[in-house]
Structure formats: structure tokens, C-alpha cells
UniProtKB/TrEMBL annotation:
CDD domains: UDG-F1-like
Keyword DNA damage: yes
Protein's name according to its UniProt entry: Uracil-DNA glycosylase
Catalytic activity: Hydrolyzes single-stranded DNA or mismatched double-stranded DNA and polynucleotides, releasing free uracil
Organism: Aquimarina brevivitae
Gene name in the database record: ung
Family stated for the protein in its record: Belongs to the uracil-DNA glycosylase (UDG) superfamily. UNG family.
Length: 221
């Protein structure tokens, strides 16, 4: 696995790439991609960092695993490639945005448009075996993405972190809440959303209000 990550991130992460756990992770991922169908495409593993540079980060959304169906995962959490039907969680995200902002939004499931505005769409685990959710967990990715969250919390001020569901909330322990806005809710999956844990939290308008108050551009969701 070639760690082909945007230079703005590489400056902060070069030491991480030399650590034993990361070298072990690289070996694991390389073997998995050589012997099984895995997602996203190898060239998209670090796409979240390529489309949202370190200097540009304004909002961080934390997912769990990449989608594990054919053609879905594109390296950005909750995002799917053009032409792929929207997974249920993404449908619920769009419903909440339309309700929160009282406006219709793009129906494209490719969230690259968010990333380019400064939304880091970070999965806790960056790879997965086809049709096997969670198959690449506990191999080192979680340590790497914890490092990313700590780095952003320490090096920046005035970020918005959106933590949806128990898994993301645990990752949120790395965040300095005196410096950043942390928005928490249930997960947008139907199981959580249909129990009333997702809709109505207005994270998208609250994020934009916060960014505007800090003199930053709001996000066109």
C-alpha cells in the first residue's frame, strides 16, 4: 500500500508512518488487497485527506467503516460514487439537511463537494473486505485515525466535530471541547433514526452558525 497522502497532511504524519503499528497495518492491507476484493479502490484509501487539506478543515464527520458493496466506497465516509443508489444512512442525512435548512439539496451521493469546502469525511477504519463489514477493524486503522483527531484538536481551533452514534462518540474523547464545537446525536442508520435518535438535532445549521460567528465561510450542504 502506497501511503500517497496529500502533502499538507504528510508534514504532520511522517513520524506516524514509521511506527511499528503502521508498518504492520500496511503489510496487512497490502496482503488483503492482493488476495481479496477490498474497498475502496487502493487509490482512494486516503481520499478524505486529498479532497480536504489540513489547512482547509472546518468540519469533521466521523464514520466507522467504508461501504462494503460493489462500487460504493470512494474513501469519504457516508459518500458513494456517482450513479450508485443512496444507502439508507445517507438518505437520512439528506432528509435531515433538507428539514434543518428548509431547502432542497443535491441528490448526488458523492460528498466530494463537501470535502472540497473543508469537511473531513473520516472513517475510523479506512478499508474493508467485500461484503464483510468490520473485517479490517482492530488492525491499526483506529490508532491512526485517533491520531488524526488528536492532531486536529491540538493544532486547530474552532472546528466542528459531528459525532453520530456510539462509535463516533467514543472517538470524540480525543477532542478538546473548550476549543471546538462537538455535536452529538444517534447514528443516521434506519435502526437509530427510526427510534428518534437522529432527526431534529439540526447539526448542519448549528455548524454553519458557529462557523459564521468565527468569520469562516459556511458549508453549502
Amino acid at each position: 500500500m502506497d501511503v500517497n497522502i496529500d502533502p499538507s497532511w504528510k508534514a504532520y504524519l511522517e513520524n506516524e508512518f514509521t511506527k511499528p503499528y503502521f508498518k504492520k497495518l500496511v503489510a496487512f492491507v497490502e496482503n488483503e488487497y492482493q488476495t481479496h476484493q477490498c474497498y475502496p479502490e487502493a487509490s482512494d484509501i486516503f481520499a478524505a485527506f486529498d479532497y480536504c487539506t489540513f489547512d482547509n478543515v472546518k468540519v469533521v464527520i466521523i464514520g466507522q467503516d467504508p461501504y462494503h458493496g460493489p462500487g460504493q466506497a470512494n474513501g469519504l465516509c457516508f459518500s458513494v460514487n456517482e450513479g450508485i443508489s443512496l444507502p439508507p444512512s445517507l438518505q437520512n442525512i439528506f432528509k435531515e439537511i433538507e428539514s434543518d435548512l428548509n431547502e432542497s439539496i443535491s441528490k448526488s451521493g458523492n460528498l466530494q463537494r463537501w470535502a472540497e469546502q473543508g469537511v473531513l469525511l473520516l472513517n475510523a477504519t479506512l478499508t474493508v473486505k467485500a461484503n464483510q463489514a468490520g473485517s479490517h477493524q482492530k488492525q491499526g486503522w483506529e490508532q491512526f485515525t485517533d491520531t488524526i483527531i488528536s492532531l486536529l484538536s491540538e493544532q486547530k481551533e474552532g472546528l466542528v466535530f459531528m459525532l453520530w452514534g456510539g462509535f463516533a462518540k467514543k472517538k470524540g474523547k480525543k477532542i478538546d471541547r473548550n476549543k471546538h464545537l462537538v455535536l452529538e446525536s444517534g447514528h443516521p442508520s434506519p435502526l437509530s433514526a427510526n427510534r428518534g435518535y437522529w432527526f431534529g438535532h439540526r447539526h448542519f445549521s448549528r455548524a454553519n452558525t458557529y462557523l459564521t460567528q468565527l468569520g469562516k465561510d459556511s458549508i453549502k450542504w
